[in-house]
Amino acid sequence: MQKGDALEELIENIAVQLRLSGQGILLKQNVLWVNYGGKVFPKKGAPVDFLGVISGC
After folding, report:
1. What confidence score (pLDDT) does residue 23 get?
2. What is the pLDDT of residue 44?
3. Is 45 a domain residue?
4. pTM for the full model?
5. Which residue range(s) make up the domain with 19?
6. Strands (E), the chain
7. d(CA 42, CA 6)
8. pLDDT, tens digit, for every residue of 10-47?
9. What's the total number of domains in the chain?
10. Is residue 24 part of a domain?
C-alpha cells in the first residue's frame, strides 16, 4: 500500500475489506514515486493513481 493522505488510506482500507468479504474487486495501479527536495512526486509519465471498487461481480 502506498502512503497517501488519511482519506485515501481510509478508502483503500474499505476497498480491501470489501474485496476480502467477496463484495467487490479492488482495482489499483502502482505508481513509481520520486523523492525530490523532501517531497514526493509521481515519476514523469506515470498514470494517475486510481483506486476503485466494483461490486456485484
Report:
1. 74
2. 66
3. yes
4. 0.37
5. 6-54
6. 25-28, 33-36, 39-42, 51-54
7. 18
8. 877 887 787 788 776 656 666 677 777 887 776 766 55
9. 1
10. yes
